[in-house]
Every structure is written in structure tokens, then in C-alpha cells.
Design a protein that fits this description.
The protein is α/β, with parallel strands linked by helices and 356 residues long. Helices cover 31% and strands 20% of the residues. The chain is built from 10 helices and 10 strands. A 10-stranded mixed β-sheet has the order 1-2-3-5-4-6-7-8-10-9, sandwiched between helices. A hairpin with a 2-residue loop joins β2 and β3. The longest helix is centred in the middle third of the chain and has 19 residues. The model has no long low-confidence stretch (mean pLDDT 98). The structure holds beta-D-galactopyranuronic acid (GTR). Beta-D-galactopyranuronic acid binds next to loops.
Length: 356
Amino acid sequence: MYISNQLTKRSIPDLFTFENGTKVTAENADKRRAEFRVVLQREIYGEFPVSPDYVKGEIIEKPRARDCAGKATIKKVRLSFAVKGEEFSFPLYVVMPKNVKSPRFVVIINFRPNMPDEYIPAEELIDRGIGFASFCYKDVTSDDGDMADGLSGVLAKVGYNDTGKIVMWAYAAMRALDYILETEDIDRDHIAVAGHSRLGKTALVAGAFDERFTCAYSNNSGCSGAAITRGKVGEQISFITKTFPFWFCKKYREYVDRHDALPFDQHFLVSAIAPRQVYIASAIEDTWSDPESEYLCCAASSNFWKIYGKTGFIGEDRAPAIGDRFHEGNIGYHLRSGEHYFSREDWNIFLDYFLK
Ligand code: GTR
């Protein structure tokens, strides 16, 4: 009863009713997912740019013999693409395990331009046979209100004036994938996009808008990410839109202290990823993100997988507890001890899920 009671209390919008009032069925579930994307762009994240005119890469640093103890090749690429004739480029690391044919792959949206990095345990990933690419989100556009910086400035020139920066970082992750699919032999049935916190929100958005990602991994993403907004503790729309207005479109500010007026909740974002995999990780001391609201979002989204004849979330009918790992369904979840952080423990548990 815990989950149904909690979800009743939160009274979140129904996944199975279109905006025009008609009901969602197995036949039109894809249309409803398209509607989720329309609603999410209109209400919270802003408009996605059109597909790029082209994407190309130039290798600017070649692999070295001792990369990851000689078990991987690490190269740095300058990735360029154009939107409506305007070019933009940013650096991307591509790391491939040696001696693994068609590895499973993760596009990692990171805070820093480091390889490895405190949030990217490169050797652990390589030792488990994973290939990955990573870029620093600030190389795409600054994490502040400067809308002339980087991709933001490029998009403004071609008419995107209300696209939030989360969408821009997600768009960059998609361009990274364009390049990887052109240049590397990877397992196309196992491609994840991953990020932590604000970049965990970004990973969910990338997964929701690009079906080539077969899995979206959001670590401690919280408010406006994996956590249900209604009834959430910790960070609220009021704080996030005041501190980081540039992450979102302007309309999102209308919902400050008016959560009940939201025509969606974050289970729309998670359900837009159905019937592919979503992985949500929480940390017990990260009350700002609110682990319980992240857990409830998994449960609230689960039925959208069922309509595709797939298993959604298989958890327990109680509040989440430290040590929980729910890996059976297409929505995976874990809760670890400790703080807001993208830890090796998070990666190792996620990889257990992703490599199943
Ligand atoms: C906080 C923000 C959160 C989260 C976090 C982070 O300041 O309020 O929504 O994104 O930053 O990205 O580390």
C-alpha cells in the first residue's frame, strides 16, 4: 500500500490520457511518448534544435601506449556540427577497450574536461569491457546566464531563444553519439547516456529525445530530473528557476509554488524513454535531490512499460532503503549510503545492471 498511498497523495497527472482527453492504448503509446516530448519542451526544458546539417570529428590527441594500463585507446577529438548553417565544435574523449569486439557503450556528460576524472572510473569501465565517450558540459555552453556563450550563442543566431541549457548539453551528447556510430564498432543494442545531478537531468532528457540511446542513467538528478515534483522535499521549482533559470525555458517559472498546475510531472520524462531502459540512482544523504521522490518516479512510470508488454519497475512496496538494488525491470534503481556524488560504487552497481 505504501506506493499507491504515496502516489495518490502526490496526485500526479495521468500518463494514459492525451492532452485532448482521449485514452492511451498499446496502439498509440508511441504517440503519447511524442506528446510527452512536446509537453516537456513547452513547459520545462525548451525547444530542441533541428537535426544538425553534418557532424564531423578531427583527432587532436592520439592514443598513447599506456592508456588505461595499455588496455584501452584514448583519443581526443574536436567534434564539429552545424545547426541551420551555423557551426559549433567542442572536444570529446573517446575511450575504447582493446580486444573487445563491439563493446557496449556509454556517452558520459561530465562536469570537467578530464580523462579519467573523479566521476569517471575509466579503468573500471574498461576492465568491464565498456567503451565510452565523455565531454565537459561547459565546453558546450557555460553553466550560467550567458546566452551568447558557445552553443547557446550559435542557437540564438538561428532563432532558438528559449532553449534551456539542459537541452543544449543533451543535444551535444546526441552529436557525440552521431560521431561514435560513424567511427567506432559498438554494440548498438546497448548504448547508454549517463550523468550526475544537473547532468543526470540532462541524461534523462537525452534518453527521452534520442531513441538510439537504449538506456539513460541518471545519478542523483533530483529536482526537474528523476524526482516527482509534487510533494517533493529539498529542492523546489522556486529555488531551481531562481538559481539556474538558464537551464529551462521561461514557462517553467510559472509553476513556482504552483506545482498542482503543472500539466506533467517528472514521470513524463522517464516514461518518454519507454520501452527502453532507465536507471535511477539515489544517495541517502542527498536530501536536496530527495531519494524517495526519485524512487516514486520509478514506480509511477512503471505502467508505461507494461503497455508495451515490458516489465517496468520491480521494487518493494515500502520506502527505499540503503543497499536497495532493483535490477529486474527495465527501470532500474539503487540507493547507496553517503552524499551527493557520482561514486565508483554508483558506477559499479549501474554496470551490473547495464551488463546483464
Ligand atoms: C544544485 C542544484 C541541483 C543539482 C546540483 C548539481 O545546486 O540545485 O539541482 O543539479 O546542483 O548539479 O550538482
